[in-house]
Amino acid sequence: MSSAIHAERLARVRAELAARGLDGFVVPISDEHMSEYVGDYAQRMAWLTGFGGSAGTAAVLPEKAAVFVDGRYTVQVRDQVDGTLFDYVGVPQSSVAEWLGANISAGQKVGYDPWLHGIDWARSLERALAAKGAILVAVDANPVDAAWDEQPAPSAAVVTVHDAALAGQGAVEKREIIADWLKAKGLDTTVMTALDSIAWTFNIRGEDVSHTPVGLAFALLHADATADLFIAPEKLTDAVRAHLGNSVRIHDRDAFEAALANLSGKNIAVDPDRAVAAIFTALEGAGAKIARHRDPAVLPKAIKNDTELNGTRAAHVRDGVAVSRFLKWMEAVAPTETLDELGAAAKLREFRDASGALRDLSFDTISAAGPNGALPHYKVDETTNRAIETGTLYLVDSGGQYDDGTTDITRTIAIGTPTPEMRRRFTQVLKGHIALATARFPKGTRGSQLDILARQYLWADGVDYAHGTGHGVGTYLAVHEGPQRIAKPAGGQAGTEEPLHAGMILSNEPGYYKAGAFGIRIENLVVVTPQSIAGAEEEMLGFETITFAPIAQNLVEVALLSKADADWLDAYHAEVLAKLGADMEGEERAWLEAACAPLDRTPAALAA
């Protein structure tokens, strides 16, 4: 899309701000539920700036504007956003508050939509602006929406029942557990706004957000185990209404704000990390007593039961067959140099669709050739689409949504003969992946305490990667799920993170990215599992790998592997063959056997 279009849109937003007596406005990638991925109607930053990433913010002033992104998008933002219209600002090195503070004047008014930002963010920005003599103003209607002529409407797709046979626990039982939590805390009600929490709690799924099977809704859950669900009535079939039962009162989604005004005098639990500022303002205005607590569905949703784990294991075998067929196809087609990133992504989707069980992708496939692979969150489109050429690396990060599980896998492929540098970096990433996969750690350990295991071999060469090593994953829900994570401590406060619990699913995805040249990532999903260790004096945990597809052996520098590393890779490939082989026949089976053959350890002695 041309910069002229975005210049015109920016001018329209500025005119709308001036008409409202505002000097500035903040535009996040967010919705009323503070979702990571948002529906098309909420893609305000993309419409205004052209930025296609999943995390970022824009700020508009009369003479200046800026986009704020983290290290994942440093290159992408420059490719997609016109630098003559918007300053590029990196976070956390800087922030919206710092940039506004440097560019605002006393007496000016900056607007924000209180349905798109958290309460702590709003209050922090309010203080920062006040220090400059400026004012933060909560708007009643979003000015970007007024300037956006063809803004899509929110999805009208119906929701469906997620059967207890897949969930492993009934919705009534889940509400009773939350009710017991409320009573133990002396609370009357909890406000639930996170779409995946609502989907999990009520055992429903939807199609309102791309790649995440959720429906647009709010909920109030009460200490008597009843609930009020705020959702467009036309989204509910008779089957869903029967599933929800008489203890769940149905209201239009637009009635949610008014319902908050009826909670005067009640003790209300609200999660400041998931509930927008407008909810706090409404409750405070109603005279409710607000207690800050994490959404009570977050932790039980993250700790999968046996039914969920067995389902996701089955989904990963099904998905692994599709990915392996794709890898075989790539090995044959890519060297002909007739393939591009979009074509490869489409073919991978075909292999997943062939299972007959795919509901959706779990995110937009990262199909990245050559230098595009150096962009960890690259998103291919018609303007960035690159040919897959001999002598390069191809990185593909993809996943599927199935009724019984959510997958996320990354493989890196050498097109032709890899260079020694490519092999060295790939092997360092592999060694880090193995170190994390085989880790054993005491109960109570946090992901930040394990992160160094995946980075150590890269650090030894003075290199690193700018993203986390692991994120939580749902079961037929969000591919990025908290509270668990494996990453460097956020703000240096490891003690504030959630310890890893048995039953949690995480990704294991170290990588390496050489700007302008290539990217490498190896990603499997793992389940936190109890470990039985002879003589152990602590309750110990470890990881079970549940993703199965071959790892490119022609990228492995065997001399850099320890014997334990090589043994792990051989054992992993033996398991890949055992789990996938029955579903692959003929040439496919022969290819899989070759891809999973034990390492050739003869070219060089293994490291000690």
UniProtKB/TrEMBL annotation:
Enzyme class label: hydrolase
Top-level taxon: Bacteria
Enzyme Commission number(s) of this protein: 3.4.11.9
Keyword presence, Protease: yes
GO CC field: cytoplasm
Pfam families: Creatinase_N (PF01321), Creatinase_N_2 (PF16189), Peptidase_M24 (PF00557), Peptidase_M24_C (PF16188)
Keywords in alphabetical order: Aminopeptidase, Hydrolase, Metal-binding, Protease
Family listed: Belongs to the peptidase M24B family.
Protein name: Xaa-Pro aminopeptidase
